[in-house]
Amino acid sequence: MRSWPSRAPEAFDERRGSFRTFFLSMVHHRGVDLVRREQRLRNRTEKAANLEPLADEDPADAVAEAGYLGVRRKEVREALTELPAAQRQVLEMAYFDGKTQVQIAEELHIPLGTVKTRTLAAMRKLRVALEEAP
Questions:
Q1: Which of 17, 35, 39, 52 has the fewest CB atoms found within 10 Å of its own CB?
Q2: Residue pair 12/2 in contact by the 8 Å Cβ criterion
Q3: Following CA atoms 77, 81, 86, 92 in sequence, which dihedral angle do they give, to the nearest 10 degrees?
Q4: For 61-132, CATH number?
Q5: What is the pLDDT of residues 24-48, one digit of tens each?
């Protein structure tokens, strides 16, 4: 494969090689550029997500938050047990199994609208139950 001086379509010169070679070279280079751009974005996102805590942050805040989250998880799980089985099932499939409403409908052989109705009703019941939690 011959090297082309430019990646612009106007740079094609049939004396330097076939159009097919030129075109495949352009596609390859643009693909590589896209992959590199995505990798840079991923690296930046990971770096931002893993920032060290600020020096003036109180470590007790992190401990208190972790404790609160543990208690809240327990409250959510208990509230889930109070839901009707059909409503609990769609929530568990969505939130614990990561399934979409379409996937849930297909798997349970029920209409998509039924999945949406059950999800909404369950979320409303959970909200009420968790607002009442001590």
A1: 52
A2: no
A3: 20
A4: 1.10.10.10
A5: 888 888 888 888 889 988 888 887 7
Compute CA 56 distance to the chain's CA centroid, rounded to the nearest angstrom. Answer: 32
Q: Residue 71 is encoded by which pair of tokens?
A: 């208690």
* Under 8 Å between Cβ of 103 and 94: no
**Structure pTM?**
0.50
Single-letter amino acid, residue 114:
T
Please compute the mean of the pLDDT values over residues 102-118 and round it to a whole number.
95
Residue at 11: amino acid letter: A
Conformation bin of residue 98: beta by default, left when phi > 0, alpha when psi is -120 to 50? left
Percent of the chain with pLDDT over 90: 28
CB neighbours of 125 closer than 8 A, spacing ≥ 6? 79, 82, 83, 87
pLDDT, one tens digit per residue, over 47-76 is 777 766 555 667 777 777 777 788 888 888
| Angle 22-26-27 from CA coordinates, rounded to 5° | 120
Task: Compute the distance between CA of residue 4 and CA of residue 20 in angstroms, rounded to an integer.
Answer: 13
